[in-house]
Amino acid sequence: MKMWSGRFHQPLDADFERWQRSFDFDRRLLREELAASRAHATALKNGGNLSSSELITILQGLNQIAEKAAASAAFLDDNEAEDVHHFVEKQLVAVIGDTGYKLHSGRSRNEQIATDLRLYIRASIDQMKADLAEWLWISLDRAEQAGGAAMPAYTHLQRAEPVLVAHWLLAYVEMFLRDAERLADCRKRLNLSPLGSGAVAGATLPLDRRAMAEELGFDAPTANSIDATSDRDFVLEFVGALSLLAVHLSRWAEEMILFSSQEFGFIRLPEAYSTGSSAMPQKMNPDLLELTRGKAARIIGDATALLVTVKGLPLAYNKDLQETQQPLFDAAGTVLSLLPLASGWMKAVEFNHERMQQAAQSGFTNAWAGATYLVQRGVPFRLAHEQIGKAVQTCIERKCELGDLALEELRQLNPAFDQDFYSCLSLQAVLNIHDVPGGTAPARVRQAIADARRKVESMREDVHAHA
Q: Does residue 374 share a domain with residue 287?
């Protein structure tokens, strides 16, 4: 029996009925639907609309549904259920009889799906934060293991200045810390309960909305029933945050792909996350990284689909909102499956510190330090820049480095050059000169690692608090 069929004389067109069903994808909300139904049943009893025995019977029936779903995936193969709400009602009536029909008293599927989605996203955020914390912790371990190893940093994909390998890894740590903060912020905003909002105007029975909210771990009930039943901002915000997380993962993957190429040779791909070529025996391909880059496009597409779906909808609930579920599930599922793999890859990858160190000491990555040497001796920076640039041009012509130029030649450019100029060009001196908060000086990087560890520990504590 349909949940709405009393007003209709004719059955649905069979093709349309199959086409408009959402159970094939919203059945993944069964856990959330059962939790919200338990809270609603308790509120019905407390409001005098269910007897104690009826409440017990309904709660036992809901628990049986959960047990059957856990025992067999085939239990969810239902060609008649219109959606997860209809499925639960069908199964409840099958288990406990007509008392199961009382569960829907005073509520609407409009508020049910809004509640289920909030519960689903909240749980997804908690898992993602745990997964991000793991990735971050592994990355910090790798940064510490790199110690004083250096590499070139790039601008415009050209060698720019030397940095510690740890400093480079910390750039990604900062990106993913921001992603974790965005998810936490999204969680705060979505953690309100639509239960009791009814179809659009509010419940028709005296339900304790605050008690239902507290039972489900929400901070409070939503403030407006029209908004609560039509709002999908929390879905858009969540998938929007995931699209930015996916962009960061894609940038990370792209750089690792570049650095694993023979042209760079900075990293050695982990075999456990790579594949070969069916034609070329020598190949090892960065499949995890390439798929990470590719899946980012799908998540960005999901965010776009959500925005376009809701942009022109009048208040309140419209069936179009059913179309917001699949992009949500796709984006969330993609990120949840990807993050543990990215952590495994990060733990297994090998850094070729020797190759990185060699690259950090060539290509005039110490040129700015050379200009700074002159600035510290009173030369205006623009003139110092020009004079070091001329020295670099001479080196290019001679195929040598700045430190290979004779002091007499340098003094022809500026008499401020002295013997100590050569020591300022050393790798360690160039690293040390960037001694500002956020810079690559070794002491600053050690402090940055310690600060990041505290943030990740706080993330883990927050995840455990919500478990």
A: no
On whether residue 454 sits in a domain, the answer given is no
Whether residue 420 sits in one domain with residue 292: no
Give me the catalytic one of 277, 362, 423, 458.
Answer: 277
The dihedrals phi and psi of 159, each to the nearest 5 degrees, come to -60, 130
Kindly report, residue by residue over 394-422, the tens digit of the pLDDT.
Answer: 999 999 999 999 999 999 999 999 999 99
**Residue ranges in the chain whose pLDDT is less than 70:** 1-6, 9
Taking the model in full, what pTM does it have? 0.94
Beta bridge partners of 155: 158
State whether the Cα torsion 104-25-123-186 is positive or negative. Answer: negative
277 labelled catalytic: yes
Task: Look up the CATH number of the domain holding residue 225.
Answer: 1.20.200.10
Where is 220: in which H helix or E strand? strand 220-221
Residue 193: name the closest of 123, 120, 115, 116 by CA.
115
Catalytically annotated residue among 9, 52, 156, 278: 156
Identify which of 185, 183, 191 has the alpha carbon closest to the alpha carbon of residue 219.
191
Active site (annotated) includes residue 156:
yes
Q: What is the DSSP letter of 159?
A: E
Contact 421, 370 (CB under 8 A): yes
- Which pLDDT score is estimated for 309? 97
